[in-house]
């Protein structure tokens, strides 16, 4: 049997290429079967553990942001810091152009997202972290760009074995997940491993960063997209019963 998500992909393909689209859209039997599959699927938990990134950042602090640090470790560190600070996915990191990369300004060339079916340039401003240079994305950026093993390349993240080639998306994804696994709540969660851009954006929201700024930084089309696919619900920490009933009394 196929998972509901796979069924949805099959339906999308059928709707995109079928010569008689209306016959599928009007098929009550097909729609009922899809509805039955979704209802029979395992329950989706809307509540997630709050991810504590202390262990992940402690590990990153142990990696010196210097041109003499191994290219592998420095790339791993900078990839995680960028993904966390700008809500970037591995595919975004892969598309950062070295030619357009500056201390506080990043340009992601043709990310997966589009606008009106056209490719875009995602421009981001990254702030420094003066109170902790060991975790400052700008410091790590300067060390990576001026790394002793760097050769002439248009890519920000280079393959440490073949320096004239960019790191592939799967390698960048492995970097991010390996560091995220250091966080206890992700390592013990029954859910699939959460992504860095999901964890970071939800942490920013919990800490009071306006949703509009999070949507802009993460390049989400709308609040609805963020709420449906990236926003995590958490267990209520306050005593709502006492607060509400005492107020009504």
TrEMBL record:
Cleaved signal peptide residues: 1-16
Q: Which UniProt keywords apply?
A: Signal
Report what the protein is called.
Uncharacterized protein
Species per Swiss-Prot/TrEMBL record: Phascolomyces articulosus
